[in-house]
Write the structure tokens for this entry.
Amino acid sequence: MVRRPSSPASVGQAIVSDYTNVDTLAAFVDQRRPAYVVHVAGATKGVTYADFQGANVRPTEALLEAFRRSDAPLRRFLYLSSLVSHGPSTVREPHDEGAEPRPIEHYGRSKLEAERAVEGSGLPFTILRPGGVYGPGDVDYFNLFKSAASGLNVYFGNRRRVFSKIYIDDMVEATLQAMLHPAAENRGYFVCDGAPVSWQDFQEAISAHAGRRVQNLDLPGGFVGLAALGGELLSAIDGRARLFNRQKAAMGRAEAWTCTPRALERDVGFQARVSLQEGVERSWKWYRERAWVPSLRKESA
């Protein structure tokens, strides 16, 4: 089920729906009677907290209410949240399931609010909080590939900042295992590959497969602050959401955004299998095959 006709549906059938209309959702649930639901819809960009509530919280509440009204044989409602719902961590202490949630920006707060709605719904649920998900089809980390393909690595004062990540194939596997495993019912888990990485190491891994020389550009903190303020001013003028603002800049200043997958490994047997090197190689291949970035030039004889 998607919000817009333009949303891709590479697997199965896409059904367009208004995610805030409980009656429409309830009719769909009664007709299809799904036993398993994976709710991944949401937004990472917005101008105000109300924007994030409208994209991440209200649709979740409406979908939960639709299932409460229905007698569909729901066995699990899996909600895809985010590590940012709990705020930054430290290098020495990655978040685990006992961590106190302290989100520091609108997106994280909205994901936490949606988590609370899921937990209080009375429906059988599982919540997953992944770190950064990268790989084929991703449009956020893709910007790093695109920049490297043009010969430039840009750092926003974050070379040494550390974050948890997971390749998309491993994320899909974690989702399926958690959704189907009895031990994961009514539980929340952090998800990552267990190998935190600095932005410098991540971007250097990307640059290694760019097929050209890549220059590094380090932007000073003052410039980052001005750019973030400029993004907010433009949003105030035209009402358009922009990815970079002062909240995102604050996220970039945090020491670490890390978590541990130990609880998920223990309860459902999940094991991430794709290394950073392999994940980056697969991503380059996918982006090149679809002309998102230029193909490698053939070496001259």
Notes: The first helix runs from residue 22 to 32. The mean pLDDT is 92.
